[in-house]
């Protein structure tokens, strides 16, 4: 029987959502995070009864709709507060969910991007975040659903407010070599983050030059601690490759952990191995002001996560995947292909029930369970969410758990966690960005202004002088 032939199953009631998420159990403000549907969400009961909000779970996300609204720009971030915005939450880009990206803002003014998958830029713009806020990007691995929007973020940086280099962190080369049974080999490949960014700059030459009749940097740009002297142009990329094998052992030469990616302004970001598809994937942990967050990226269930989270973490963001049979049904694949889908999942991902097991292990003393667990990289709809939370609860019956959707926003402080849904416009425009820099460099394509005698932009310098361009006087005549 095809999925379309089935009678729609019931969606998620308010009681279901609160019970399965555990949000009513925690005693924190998060317990009030889902107090009813937003005013802009229509309600409809299942005709057969049961009190469901929607009766078409394949096309609804009641769970997300019931979160209290958050309107970007309506409230300042507290000086000791962290805000985590989910601006892409699926490996399959859809209108409801783009590919993967998590944006972290801190009360000290810092902001960080964890992955920048296909289609996420419009979500950032809708939230009021322009590309100057997306200048520090941490990549978990080099799948397109985790870095597919890099060409736009890089190429249009100067046009949308980033007049300094793009800073990218990610795993170094895998070094992996495969020897087949017939003794043929594959690898090693030039498959590190620096290889990616080198290729990105090469493929972007036409684009970058075409935009360079405007200033692409400032002479008074202060190179930060994570920058490189001499690299100050917005078409520079500063790449920090991370040894994907490191997991936090103390380096005897420095006395520091061997997995520190970033350590500035009171913010420490470390990395550790992820088990995903092939060697060369990593996860991240951010710590600031007594608050912490782990972002798993994609990974099979692993002890790495437990080891990194067992001392306590405020928010554990972990990918999950639905059962292979459900995936096939959603994708319209024949049942006999389930083994193929299962093989893909076995190489790469954490089953939803396994996430419950991990949380169970973290809840066993002396380990400390996270204050909030978040499942993401997951196609979030009423039926899939209900199934995922049910499976997680088999192992982890108490504790706060949510399933992420695009535009879910979490505010974290020492005494409070608040989960909401951002209310944005589908027609939002990128907003102008102010800068404290005052000395723009001369454009790369320039001429001398006949009136002032000073250098000025030359927007037509790269055009074919013999092109039959229509005289503006003709179309402006009426």
Strand content: 15-25%
Number of helices: 13
Q: Write down the domain tally.
A: 1
- Overall residue-averaged pLDDT value: 89
Q: Sketch the major β-sheet.
A: 9 strands, mixed
Broad structural category: alpha/beta
Radius of gyration: 24 Å
Low-confidence stretches: 1-9, 24-55
User: How many distinct beta strands?
Assistant: 20
Briefly note the CATH topology name: Metallo-beta-lactamase, Chain A
What is the spatial order of strands in the main beta sheet?
A: 1-18-17-2-3-4-5-6-9
Q: What does this 3D model show about the protein?
A:
With 478 residues, the protein is an alpha/beta fold. The chain has one domain: Metallo-beta-lactamase, Chain A. Helices cover 21% and strands 21% of the residues. The protein contains 13 helices and 20 strands. The chain has a 9-stranded mixed beta sheet with strand order 1-18-17-2-3-4-5-6-9. Strands 10-11-12-13-14-15-16 form a 7-stranded mixed beta sheet, covered by helices on one side. A two-stranded antiparallel sheet has the order 7-8. The longest helix is centred in the last third of the chain and has 14 residues, at 382-395. The chain starts with 13 loop residues before the first helix and ends with a helix. The model is unreliable at 1-9 and 24-55 (pLDDT under 50).
